[in-house]
Amino acid sequence: MRALAEGQGDRKREEDARASAISDVEESLRLLTESVRASMRDAAKGIDPALPLFGLKILQLLKRVGATQSGAVAEMMMVDKSVISRHSRHLEELGLIEVKPDPKDGRARLLGLTPAAAERVQAIQTGIMLDHDILQSWSAADLRQFSGYLSRLGGRSGPPPDGSE
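The chain above was modelled as a monomer; its predicted structure follows.
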C-alpha cells in the first residue's frame, strides 16, 4: 500500500513539474512573440512610416512568391478578400506595390512589388525575427536543436532536437 502511495506521489510530482514547465514555455513564447512583433513593427516603419504591420506581411509574401492574384494573397494570409483589397490600395498609394489586371484572367488583379519596395523588403529580411547577435553566439548544434524544437512545436516534421536521424 505504501509503495502504491509513493508511486502516485511520484506521478503527481512529475505531472506538476510538466505543468510548470509547459507554463514556462508558454510565457517564453509570449515574450518572444512580443519581441518579434515589435521588431516587425520597426521594420515596417523602416520601409515607410505609414506602413502597417499587416502591410509588411503582404510585402513579405509578395517578395517570397512574386506577383500574385489578390484572391490568392487573401487565401494564403487566411483573410477575407476585402482586407487585401483595402491594404493593397494603401500599399499602392505608398508606391510599394503595383496592381495590374491578370493577363490570364481579366477579372482578377495581380499584386506585385515595385522595384523600390523589393529592395527595401530585402534589406529588412535578415534579422527581422530574431537577434542575429544572440544566434551567432550559439553553436550550429544548438541552432539545429532549437530549429527542431520549433518544428515539433509547430506540428511540422523536422530533425529530432538531439540532431540524431
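The longest strand covers residues 105-113.
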